[in-house]
Amino acid sequence: MSSPGHFRFVATERRVREDRRFVAGKGRFVADIALPNTKHVALVTCPHANARIVGIDKSRALKMPGVHYILDGHELAAATLPLMTGLDTPNVPRRPLAVDIARYSGEWVAAVVADTRALAEDAAEEVEIEYEALPFVLDAEKAIEPGAVLVHEAHGSNVLLDKTFVWGDVDKDFAVSPRKLSLRVKWGRSSTVPIETFGVVASWDPWRDMLDIYASIQMPRYSDQIGIALKLPVTSVRVHHDVDVGGSYGVKRGIKHTVLAGYLSRRLGFPVRLIEDRLENMRGGDAHGPERLFDVEVAYDNAGIVRSMKMRALENVGAYAGRSPFQLGKPIGAIVGPYKINSVQYRAIAVVTNKTTQDAVRGFGQAPTNLALERVMDEVANVLGLDPIEIRRRNMIKHDEFPYLIPSGTTYDSGNYETVIEKVLAAGSYAELKAERDALRGAGKLAGIGVSACLEPSGGNATFEALLNPAITTSTFMDSCRISVDGMGSITATMHTTSSGQGHETLVGTVIGEVLQVDPDIIRITRPDSLNSLPSGTPVGSRMAIMLGGAAFHAANKLKAKLIAIAAHDLGIPPERAVYEQGNVHDRDAPTFKRSWADLVQIAFRNYHRMPDGMEPGLSVAHVYQVPTGGTLPTADGRVHMYPCFSFEFHLILMSIDPVLGRPEIVRYRLGHDCGTQINPKIVRGMTIGGIAHGIGAALYEEFAYNDEGQLIAQTFMDYLLPSSHEVPAVDIFDHETPSPHTVLGQKGTGESGYLGAPAAIANAINDALRPLGISANTLPIKVSTLGDMIAAAKEKK
Amino acid sequence: MKAAPFEYSRAASIEEACALLAGDESARVIAGGQTLVAMMAMRLARPSLLIDINRIAALSYIRADGDAIAIGATTRQCVAERDPLIATKLPLLARAIPRIGHAATRARGTIGGSLANADPAAECALVAVTLDAVLSFQSHSESGEIAARDFFNGPMITALPAGALLTGVRFPVWSGKVGTGFHEVNARRSDFAFVSAAAQVELGGDGVARRIAIAVGAVGDFPVRLTSAEQALTGTALESAKVEAAVREALANIDALDDLHASAQYRRRVAVDLTIRAITDARADALGEKPHAH
Amino acid sequence: MRIELDINGELRAVEVEPRTTLLDCLRDQMQLTGAHAGCEHGVCGACTVLFDGAAVRSCLMFAVQAQGSAVRTIEGVTPGPGEMSMIQDAFCETHGMQCGYCTPAMVLVAHALLADNPEPTREEIIDAISGNICRCTGYAQIVEAIALAAERMRGVNRPVNLK
Hints:
The complex is a heterotrimer. Chain A is of the alpha+beta class. Chain A folds into 3 domains: 19-26 and 478-626, 2-Layer Sandwich (Aldehyde Oxidoreductase, domain 4); 33-134 and 198-275, Alpha-Beta Complex (Aldehyde Oxidoreductase, domain 3), CATH 3.90.1170.50; 292-463 and 633-797, 2-Layer Sandwich (Aldehyde Oxidoreductase, domain 4), CATH 3.30.365. In chain A, the strands form 7 sheets. In chain A, strands 3-5-1-12-9-10-11 form a 7-stranded mixed sheet. A 5-stranded mixed sheet of chain A has the order 7-15-14-13-8, with helices on both faces. In chain A, helix 7 crosses helix 8 (255-268) and helix 18 crosses helix 19. The radius of gyration of chain A is 28 Å and the shape is globular. In chain B, strand 4 (62-65) and strand 5 (68-72) form a beta hairpin. Chain B has helices spanning 14-23, 36-41, 77-82, 84-89, 91-96, 103-106, 111-117, 123-130, 148-151, 227-233, 240-251, 264-287, and strands at residues 7-10, 27-30, 49-52, 62-65, 68-72, 134-138, 143-147, 152-154, 157-158, 165-172, 177-185, 195-203, 209-217, 224-225. Chain B has 3 domains: 7-52, Uridine Diphospho-n-acetylenolpyruvylglucosamine Reductase, domain 2 (2-Layer Sandwich); 61-172, Uridine Diphospho-n-acetylenolpyruvylglucosamine Reductase, domain 3 (2-Layer Sandwich); 179-287, Enolase-like, domain 1 (2-Layer Sandwich). Chain C is α+β, with helices and mostly antiparallel strands. In chain C, 35% of the residues lie in helices and 14% in strands. A 5-stranded mixed sheet of chain C has the order 2-1-5-3-4, with helices on both faces. In chain C, strand 1 and strand 2 form a beta hairpin.
């Protein structure tokens, strides 16, 4: 099924069922879980950017009231395996507590277990650790210079990954192009910083050999990683998926927290709770996002057609490899954006430094890559005197050119970029926006219009893993749904992962309701724990509408087919004559002959003698769904198909900058958005505006800034500035729906929308505003003081 | 982030608060707690004894006091924000208070707390310095007054004697054709300012400035009066060229902080601009015209 | 210390250390887990409760300080089990949330705002919630929820003209 058509429930303005519990404060977040006899953890952290741990004296701390235990890195390392990493870097092991060397300021060195969090913190202050401060390196470019301080001596360098891909004849394309342009763009170190920190409660039951885990988690293979590290069979790990997660947007990976708490619970014999406080989270939670330096060179012609691109992406992953080097790989699946660039050379370098470890952030590297690409497009337009929208039009893939194969091996499914852009421009003319900009300039402001045109790869076919690490042969990315009708005729469906606000229960109910033609709100949705779950890839890679939606759709159709088969058999008609309608089945040729839902439940549960031969009794079905277009691995020359679906967003904004204060303001924000069929429009709109808010933060306010001593100086919310309601303007969204041919309802993903293109559009608007002064801003975040100083310096030169 | 342990005592009177302060060197008073509790949660502040002064009626008041308005130290910022006496008699303070933090912090935070905390960017402190407010204190052994210009000595450092409780502040009221201007710049609207500027002017019937008070905050460690500019501009009609020249001269060598949020040169440069805007607004305000669009 | 607090109209006695914040007291000792810890230093607003009617940060107050004042939590503005107030219902109508972590605080801020100002402008709503950070929604649907609630509350008890 590929076209939106007319739906009963899909694409209608339905309430999100999860909202009911949240407005009453009845969500069940990890900090709300109170198991009897739970003890609390506080961390002892390293104050140095890099230091040898000479000795740990726990004696004073152990005497403090309420203290049960103090764990150090040696003990934990002896009992556990290092945490799973994606690349093959055995000399860069990662463990929850530092062993012999602590490699960033804030790294966890010891864990105190006490009756309360306050008592644990009291004792943590009394743990005496002797350090020998070591030289350190913070900057990625410095880290790759010869003679740089080595973050991991045994690894021999600071480079975790240095891989160059050449797709197409880049040299020839550069040779035949009359023009070249180079640009350096920097995406500053920020992250999505949820308001709820990461937390886990681990409880070991020695009589059932069961480790119960309640966590604020968003991560694939969570139970696997816990089992491996703790040397437990995965069947002894039970992750409870019905914990509400207070925001994640990628970063709630918490594996070191979980291994730590799990070990402590097994060792000590009571439930252990580790909830990061904000300082532990910011400094040592390992949830920083990309810090990426791009050097881009494009080859283009006098009409502004970009023929080829060379991109070097240098990533500062922090002191250890989390998920982060792979964040250089995902953008390969959309490396040319929405443009028909013919050939690409891409060099991905992941470097360790003495900063907090980075983990997956919304978009998994796509937003930084879009920033670089979109800045380049604007600069090319500027050189040629072309309008920034016009240059994009000239380079864009046309709607009748899909499916479109890009040089790196991915095929884009569908799109209609020109129509989306037209919708945005039709809503309020471009000429008027320019006039508004000019009026602002006339009034003494700096003002600029910025656009960005970006793709949101969705569906989570993460073959970049195999591309960056040939030892990985994973081509299976699945999700699943089980539906059971019970003996009374009520419907229950399952989903097998946690959610952090995406409304997945509503998604599943809506899709199943659509297929079964019953009110979604009567369908009970549950989240069984990991031992009772079918496989799930979890909400990453903007995949859930596609994958969970797909699994639920197919499961519902299986159920429908079973009901039809039972009815046809009982009516004595061939199955082709049996018509399913809102839970009942009738004879197409004699509609009064029918079986009601209640009849069918009766037959399935209690009248075996009326069932078709060989059919299982009851009404339970399940579907495990492989990602559409998935199942292939990279070719020898480094090409592979990645995500199945590509949503599109076009940002058009007008910004004004006070020339003395340097403070930027977003005056108008228009967004064209195409994510195919929108299963729940309220959810889609909310996530898109939320993504824009994240993008505004990354572009203008948020930075994990370090001082020259290697200390994180933005470690509280007083210095790490999150956008409030004042900083997010009204956004006018213009929707278009180009369905995906690959998905059950034509839906594409939207989990990263807004975030992927907002920083690029903001950067472009600011640069448009600064251009008359002959200056540019290519480092995020673009802060008030930086802008003010740049503008002042430029004016002085004039 | 749980505070280190401490004892808690609720003082029923100023005398009791002072006695408790005198008895323990590392005792501190708590009123609104909007800064102190956060500092305690981070264990940057670790008083052994916290003396709650929120119930001392004698510390909470807003009243006319001769040619001044007297405000008790534990007067809530939100109460001051809505007070008609302050609105009419202390228009500069009325302009500044809504810029303090958020509504939720003004619901608890106090005027005295903001002054005693002495953050370089504190709006109350800037207004106090601009208007030559007088702060009164009391301790177990003495009581007295300190002029605002002598009160703020460094970042979070005041001239309050050890063991003393700030009890109130008196802001002189200007009469006549008075106008005010207040500007600050920050990354987000409710953040600590990078730079702030306050101006109050009294114009004669001829439009000439009879009196003018100008100060900048958040640039250095404490608010600074621009006395040279005040002298240069008194007796003038505050023509823009004169204003600019006077302000530039006064700020030419001002100490400026360099931190994560703003560079020293930004602060110095923007201080000039905001001060000019504040003076311009004050003049327009006194003349009944519309203020500078920000 | 043994203290008695007025929580949602009921006097409740608890034993607390002076250093126990009102937030931790509500959550850990009274099982009122609707107020959430987001930063514990008074910036994010997820811990908001109503204190004598005003929205305040419960992480910036020690429980011992709350004696003698009326504290209202999200549990105290929910009319009954499974029943929503008009404000809560409006949040559900506009989907003014996603993960739900900042939501009780936003609802309480809305209650305080609308008690004081039944006809807030969009700017006034934005200003009222500006002390509460949301990382999910970008605020638009929250502002719409509060505007919708205000409109519906103004229409309460207004006679309908049936013709």
